[in-house]
Write a structure and sequence with these properties.
Elements lengths: L3 H12 L1 H7 L6 H8 L4 E6 L5 H15 L4 E6 L2 H17 L6 E4 L3 E4 L4 E6 L14 E5 L6 H8 L3 H4 L2 E6 L6 H8 L5 E5 L9 H10 L2 H8 L13 H8 L7 H9 L1
Parallel strand pairs: 1-7, 1-8, 2-5, 2-6, 6-7
Antiparallel strand pairs: 3-4, 4-5
Helix pairs in contact: 1-2, 4-5
Length: 262
């Protein structure tokens, strides 16, 4: 029989995700604590590589499945291999639980618990392959900047219509395009967190200095500085196009659109 101390700790972990993370051996960074304690239904993490975005999301996903009976947690990425990486972290944390809810299904891409909660990893390459899943209570889109718009618009967002489930987008930027970029620009809807590599205590200045020497400037800024770079193959930069449209001596945007239609 569990003693009163373990019961008290379990109650604390159920109510506080920071306590839950610490029980798994993770001391959250300040920004991770902020995310763990947020009650927002829409969370977007714009994080540099290796700053801990997948780790903290895996902890949140496991907590949700463990303490919410009948939960459906979907982990989606642009490839199944990437989705499975986050899923593996969930499985590793699950193995660390002192008194885990027994699994009824435990495979390389699916974990089902006796409380009828499910955690499933999926590829986001084809929207039609996602239609068999409905009403997730937590939808996690990993490396969201590389997931296709049609996957998000046609396959994923409609899943939340009935459940009003929580959604988390996490990614390193990948150009000024796509739903991740648009969501990041939408300050009113999303709880936004931005963490650059130099804010992560596990990434050394020496490593970043070496990376900066060996990468193109746009790529270094994208991977480590949260920068939404213009497409490197584009002739014109987005800001130059915007200036052209807003130039007082040129056509208005509507006039240009009308002329293009003629």
């Amino acid at each position: 029989m569990a003693n009163s101390t373990s019961i008290s700790h379990d109650v604390a972990a159920a109510l506080n995700l920071v306590v839950f993370a610490r029980s798994l051996g993770i001391e959250p960074d300040p920004w991770q604590r902020e995310v763990l304690l947020s009650d927002s239904r829409r969370i977007i993490l714009n994080c540099a590589r290796q700053t801990g975005k997948s780790t903290i999301t895996a902890i949140m996903a496991l907590h949700h499945a463990y303490y919410t009976p009948n939960a459906l947690v979907l982990i989606v990425s642009h490839t199944l291999a990437q989705a499975k990486e986050t899923f593996k972290k969930i499985k590793r944390f699950y193995a660390q639980l002192e008194q885990p809810i027994p699994p009824t299904t435990d495979t390389v891409d699916r974990l089902e618990l006796a409380n009828k909660s499910r955690v499933i990893s999926l590829s986001g390459q084809h929207p039609d392959s996602l239609r068999g899943f409905s009403s997730p209570t937590l939808l996690v889109i990993d490396e969201a900047a590389q997931v296709r718009d049609e996957t998000y618009d046609e396959g994923l967002r409609p899943m939340l219509a009935a459940s009003n489930g929580r959604i988390m987008l996490l990614s390193t930027p990948h150009g000024r395009r796509g739903f991740f970029y648009r969501a990041w620009e939408d300050e009113s809807t999303w709880f936004r967190v931005k963490i650059s590599a130099d804010e992560c205590p596990r990434i050394s200045k020496a490593f970043l200095s070496e990376e900066k020497k060996n990468k193109p400037d746009w790529l270094f800024k994208q991977e480590y500085c949260n920068f939404f770079a213009a497409n490197r193959f584009s002739i014109f930069k987005p800001e130059d196009i915007e200036k052209a449209f807003n130039h007082p001596e040129l056509y208005t945007r509507d006039e240009i659109d009308t002329n293009l239609d003629d």
